[in-house]
Amino acid sequence: MAPGPSADESVPAASGPTVTSILSLQVGAVVVTALYFAREVLVPITVAILLSFVLSPLVNLLRRLRLGRVPSVLMAALLAIAVIALIGTVVGTQVAQLAGKAPEYAVTIEKKVESVRGYALDKLSGVFERAGYNPKLGSPQRSAEPPGSAGAPVEQGGQPQGSGAPATTPVSLLRKYLSPVLSPFATLGIIVVVAIFLLLQKEDLRDRMIRLFGSTDLHRTTVAMDDAAKRLSRYFLAQLGLNTAFGIVIGVGLVLIGVPNPILWAILSGLLRFVPYIGSFISAVLPTALAAAVDPGWSIAIWTIALYVIVELCVSQGVEPILYGHSTGLSPFAVVVSAIFWSWLWGSVGLVLSMPLTLCLVVLGRYVDRLEFLDVLLGDRPPLTPVESFYQRILAGDADEAQDHAELLLKERSLSSYYDEVALKGLQLAANDARRGVIGHRQLEKVRNTIEGLIDELADYDDRDPPRSEQQPAGVPKDQRQLSRGAPPLAVSNTRMLVPGWRGPTPVLCLAGKGPLDDSAAAMLAQLLEKHGLGAKVASYQAASRDAIATLDLIDVAMICISYLDIRGNPSHLRYLLQRLRRRANNIPILVGLWPADEEVLQNDKTRAEVGADYYVTSLREAVDACVEEAEKGTMARPRLLHPTSSSADKEMTRTDEPEIH
What we know:
Blueprint: H1 7-37, H2 39-64, H3 69-100, H4 102-130, H5 170-200, H6 202-213, H7 218-257, H8 262-272, H9 279-283, H10 285-294, H11 299-324, H12 332-367, H13 372-378, H14 386-395, H15 399-409, H16 415-435, H17 441-457, H18 478-481, E1 508-512, H19 518-531, E2 536-539, E3 559-564, H20 572-584, E4 590-594, H21 600-603, H22 605-611, E5 615-617, H23 620-633, E6 640-642, E7 655-657
Parallel strand pairs: 1-2, 1-3, 3-4, 4-5
Antiparallel strand pairs: 6-7
Helix pairs in contact: 2-3, 2-5, 2-7, 2-12, 3-5, 4-10, 6-7, 7-8, 7-11, 7-12, 10-11, 12-13, 14-15, 14-16, 16-19, 17-19, 19-23
């Protein structure tokens, strides 16, 4: 007996992943803590980085006009400063106008509040009276407290005793009134300066990032970073343009409705729409309140709400899918969670920046191997392949989810392609787990029942390629579109032209192999044969056992198709099965479907000759093609072999003569 590993040798293997996980958690905690406590410095830098992405296309355009690097960057920065200054001036003017008319609006608001409160009190009073309680006989009112009976004593001159207010100095006045005004300008100056240096040193910073993350593969890292920068710039520019157009449409609509200060609300709507999902509706609160203040009735407020709802639905459901290609690359759950996370870290600024920041993290995860978990957690690409998704659903016994997954894939491929590329490979995973003892008998029975139910539900689908307009549906993820789509199998052109032995109701017998899930593969083949004009019936492996072979129903059977999902080593049971079938019906051709294409039987000519089948195939499409050709030609004089090539998609069927096996 070979000695097992010592305790010292097994400790590193067991503790390695644990130590790595702990270190990763510690690094993540340190990064989040640094983001929180350094937000005063990181927020301007982050905004500057995003601003550089927005200005990068403009700088590239100016450089193509031969203006040089420095003049191009400075002109782009001056343009950004001018736009920001113009927006600030307009907002300040609009706020001043709004503040001047605030008393008038307050009177209307008070009247509406009183009317609403009176209506509510009348309704509540009616409810209380029906309940036997009179609200007018409630608790006694408190006696009015005479003025001056409580509170701090007042000195002569109206100053409270002991106030001890310090004397006001010019420096304190400047600090009190100028600091709130100068602070935004200082932050804006930091953002612009950092953005200018980022644009000037873009190539140098890129080289440093390549040296830091990908010096071992310069070509791949360079291409990845350039592609990521272009994608981010394009997205941010498109988002800026779309939100600007949204604000303009809102402003025009508010002018037509008659809401005061429409320019202010247009700018506010365009800025708040950077907040995902809820930003546009938050921006509708203030103009709706103002509309209620200027109108004695409620019509203007209702029209304002309708304007925001209609424009937002048109933009989010119509314009954005076309502009962004149906997706920003983020899952909806990740967008919501990132909005909560960044607003907790950086407040309102983090809420506005949550979408761009999360998109940057997802792009990093797609190109940096160490950060791939970010793409898995936050991206919209499916974490499982179609085969793994299929296996997970049948393993859980979720027939509805399995059917929904199948219908999604069938929008762009034929039924035979789905069975070959997804279902059979998923069954192979289940067969491998069953062979290793991972799946118990009860769970294996649940898998079989789920597969049988799925095959029955897919009986209404024709085995044909969908129309070209449906082959790339918007809802199918990119990873699922990469599955190969083979052409559908041949179909019987005219049943009257079939060989007499093939004109019966079930000319094909689909015999399951010895594996626990081979019956499901045989049922799929029988369904495809029926869709292509050949009747078929399914029999289990026990029906062809030594005890039951004599009673096997072979009436009207012109061909036998045996399905195997898993056959390891020397396939003696397959060889003996064929010998029993030959003794029972020597003149019936036999096809063996070995769905794992790398089986030894397919690679070894000697093993194939010993088994003695007439056809060997590795896909359901090939099996149907072989049956249809045999039914239409009927040239079978003695057993022949199908020699498949290594590629299951482009196999050519060649036949060789072999002696009969008795």
